[in-house]
Every structure is written in structure tokens, then in C-alpha cells.
Design goal:
Layout lengths: L5 E5 L3 H13 L3 E5 L2 H10 L4 E4 L8 H11 L3 E6 L4 H9 L4 E4 L4 H20 L10 E3 L2 E4 L4 E4 L4 E3 L2 H12 L4 E2 L1 H5 L9 H13 L9 E4 L3 E4 L3 E3 L1
Length: 236
């Protein structure tokens, strides 16, 4: 079990913060609660947590703005915890890079299980090796991917940083080029809030990789089967 991690909870409902904090601490984590976005932003400047659990309905800002900021400035896990249950909100949250979306009301034990799933994936990404050399990078098409920093770079100087969930999907494709991978294979142990998570994250990856994301060249959709990376991959 993943334990001993620092987790921020950003929610204006004091009772929910206490409930989530108590459950996380019962499983060995350290939890700190913040009741508005400004408090959380100040804390994030001082110390980077392993995971941030964010309510979308904050009193001083839209929680999605905080999610966007975390994706731009801080490599940390992100879980959205919200009373907004509409599909557009879920899709937007995952498109911005959140690792999971949990709707209120929720089971505290399920929330901790989802949090631990995110933390396990992040630990796996941090220690994952390819062959005997963990520093190997992947060259494919016009791109180079460094699994140590989750960074994509091309010859034109463009760099893109992937979220942990996006990087996991890309690595699966890079390890099986020119093979169709089903959504179930790409999902792995991910406990997503809804079954379109792979499609949403694939859309994010394509926006970073493809010159024309609506007509992708590198990652093709094989309708009814899954996705396929269409080019060769060189690890070096």
C-alpha cells in the first residue's frame, strides 16, 4: 500500500475536509486542508504535495483554474472532488490533466483507494525502467520522449510536459508500436470516474503531438478495437 504521502485537500466545506483528512491519515498519509484557492496557491509555492484533491466550487475561484495552474507549474497528482456531476465538467477536468474525477456524495474509502491508485502510478512512473537502462529515451516520428521528466521535445524546439496518466498511455503505445491496443489494455489499473477517460486523455496527447489533432498521423483510432502508434520507435 502507498503510504506516507503529503496530500492537499482544497474544499470550502469544512466537514468534507475533516472527513477526507481523517480517512487519508487513517491510511498513513499526511493531509492538509485549505478552504479557498488562494490558500492553496500560497501553500503550493512553499511545498509540493504528492497529490491535490480539488473541489471545483471554490469561493474565490473556479477549481478548474487551479487544476490548470497545477498542470502548468507543478508535477503532482490531481484528483477532482466535486458536486458537479455533468459529463462536460468531467471531460473538461480530465482534458485539463486531472488524474481522476470523483463526484459528491462519495464513499471515503473509495476516495482513498482512488488516491492510492494515482500515487502508485506516479511512483511507478518515477522508478520505471526500460531494459537495463532507466534513462532510455524514445524517438518516434519527429518527437523525443524522456520518461524521466515526462517531457516531449521535437527538432523545432517545442516541448510539452505530460501528466502522469498521459505519459502512462503514451509509454504503452511506444512499447508496442504498430500494434492495436484496446482501451482496456490502456486503462490498466486506472480507477477513472467514467469510461471515456482514455479517449479524453488520448485527445490531450494528440493535441501535443499532432500537427492536426482532428486528423492524427501518429496515433490512429482503430474503430471498435482501440488505438495504434503508426511509426517505429527507437530507444536510446
Amino acid at each position: 500500500m502507498t503510504t506516507g504521502k503529503l496530500i492537499y485537500i482544497v474544499d470550502d466545506e469544512v466537514d468534507i475536509c475533516k472527513l477526507v483528512s481523517r480517512e487519508l491519515e487513517r491510511y498513513g498519509h499526511t493531509a492538509q486542508a485549505f478552504h479557498n484557492g488562494v490558500q492553496a496557491q500560497y501553500a503550493l509555492k512553499r511545498h509540493k504535495p504528492d497529490l491535490v484533491i480539488i473541489d471545483l466550487g471554490l469561493p474565490d475561484m473556479d477549481g478548474l483554474s487551479l487544476v490548470r495552474q497545477l498542470m502548468d507549474t507543478c508535477q503532482t497528482g490531481v484528483m477532482i472532488l466535486s458536486g458537479r456531476n455533468s459529463l462536460p465538467d468531467k471531460v473538461l477536468g480530465l482534458e485539463l490533466g486531472a488524474d481522476d474525477y470523483v463526484s459528491k456524495p462519495f464513499d471515503p474509502r473509495e476516495l482513498v483507494a482512488r488516491a492510492n491508485s494515482i500515487l502508485r502510478r506516479m511512483e511507478k512512473m518515477a522508478t520505471q525502467s526500460f531494459g537495463e537502462r532507466p534513462s532510455k529515451q524514445a524517438q518516434f516520428g519527429d518527437w523525443n520522449f524522456d520518461p524521466r521528466t515526462l517531457t516531449l521535445a521535437n527538432a523545432n524546439g517545442i516541448e510539452e510536459v505530460l501528466s502522469t496518466a498521459e505519459a502512462e498511455i503514451l509509454i504503452s503505445l511506444l512499447k508496442s508500436p504498430k500494434q492495436i491496443l484496446s482501451r482496456e489494455q490502456l486503462l490498466k489499473e486506472r480507477d477513472s470516474g467514467f469510461d471515456r477517460c482514455i479517449d479524453v486523455r488520448m485527445s490531450r496527447i494528440r493535441k501535443k503531438l499532432e500537427a492536426n489533432p482532428s486528423n492524427p498521423r501518429l496515433i490512429k483510432t482503430v474503430y471498435g478495437a482501440g488505438y495504434m502508434l503508426t511509426v517505429d520507435v527507437i530507444w536510446n
